Amino acid sequence: MPKPAQDHESWLRLGLIPGIGDGAMRRLLESFGSPGAALSANRTQLSQHLSKKQIDSLQDGPDPDLLARTMAWLSQPGHHLITLLDEDYPPLLRETADPPALLYGAGRRELLLQSCLAVVGSRNATPQGEANAEAFGQALSGVGMTVVSGLALGIDAAAHKGGLKGSGSTIAVVGTGLDRVYPARNKALAHEIADMGLILSEFALGTVSAPGHFPKRNRIISGLSRGVLVVEAALNSGSLITARQALEQGREVMAIPGSIHSPLSKGCHALIKQGAKLVESAQDIIEELAWPVMPAVGSVSTPAGMETEPLLQHLGHDPVSIDLLAERSGLTVDALSAKLLTLELEGHIAQLPGGRYQRLL
Fold first, then answer.
1. Contact 124, 154 (CB under 8 A)
2. Is the predicted pLDDT of residue 301 greater than 50, yes or no?
3. Which one, of 126, 170, 180, lies nearest residue 150 by Cα?
4. Which CATH fold topology does 114-288 show?
5. What tens digit of pLDDT does each residue of 202-244 get?
6. Number of Cα atoms under 13 Å in the Cβ half of residue 265
7. What's the CA gap between 172 and 151, in Å, rounded?
8. Which fold has domain 306-359?
9. What contacts 24+ positions apart, CB below 8 Å, involve 308-316?
10. In the chain, pLDDT over 70 holds for what percent of residues?
C-alpha cells in the first residue's frame, strides 16, 4: 500500500482557509512544492498566484476550532485525509481537469486504487430499477470492480447495497462533511459502507447539504471510475450531469433501457441515442471495459417456475393498473387482489403509487 503524506496540519491549514479553492491550491503546490512552503511564503511571492483577498485570508489562517475538530477526527481509526500529492491518490481522478486537492475518507482507503465503475440513477426509482441497480452492483463487485455512487436514495443506495455483497465493495461520494449523513434515511447504510467500503467527501467537517454540492461531487464519482452506468433517469435528472461529466473526462457511458412509457427511462434512452452503450447485463459492462474474463453474469435472475405463473405473463414488464390486469387475466378484482398480495409478499412484484403493479423478476 503506498504511503500517504503525514503533514495533515499544514494541508488542513491551507485547505480550510475560506476562498482558497482547489485551483488556487494546485497553483500553490505547483509553485512552492508543499502546503508548508506555501504557508511560509511572503505576500510578494503569493501575489503571483492569489488575489489580495485570498492572501489576507491565508495569512489570517483557518478557523482554529474547525482545524482542531478535524485533527481530532483524523486521529480516529479508519479516518483519512487523502491529498493530491499522496501516492494512493486515485490516479484516474488526478488526471481530470479539476481534481480536489483534499479528500476526507472513512473506511477502507485501499479501495482508492481499485478499478471502479459508477452506478447512478433516480432518487425516485421504481422497484425494478432498484432491483437492477443492486443486482448489477453485486455482480460487478463479485468480479472485483468497486461500485461508486452518491449515497442518495433510490438507485444510489441500491447500487451500494449490491457492491457491499462482493469483494470489490463500494465507495460513496457525498456532498456533506463526513460528520453528517445525508439523507438521514441512509444513516445505517452509511455506517455499513464506512465499515466495509469507503465514504469520501471533499467538503470540510460540519458542511451541510446544499444543492450546489451535488453536481460538484458528481465529477468525483465519474472521475474515480472507468465508466458510468445510468440505471434509471428522467430527462432532467442529476444523473445525466454525471454522465456528461464522464464524457468530458473520457469515460465510458452506459445505460439500461426501460419501458417506453416510463418517465424514468427517458434519460437512459436519450443517452443511448447519443451513443451510450445499451446494457442488458453485467457481462455487457465487463466486455465493454475489457475486464478479465469471468463466468457470465446477469442482472436480475428469475426463480425456476416463475415464468410459467400466468399472472406474471399477464402483468408483463411495464407498470399496470389492477383494472387492466383484471381485463387481461379474466379474473375478478377480488381474486386478482389475493393473487397480487401473495406475489408481493413473495417478492415477485411491487405495488407502485396510483394502485399500479410492476414485476420485480
1. yes
2. no
3. 170
4. Rossmann fold (3.40.50)
5. 999 999 999 889 889 999 999 999 999 999 999 988 899 899 9
6. 11
7. 6
8. Arc Repressor Mutant, subunit A (1.10.10)
9. 309/343, 309/348, 311/336, 311/339, 311/340, 311/343, 312/343, 312/348, 312/349, 312/359, 312/361, 315/349, 315/357, 315/358, 315/359, 316/359
10. 93
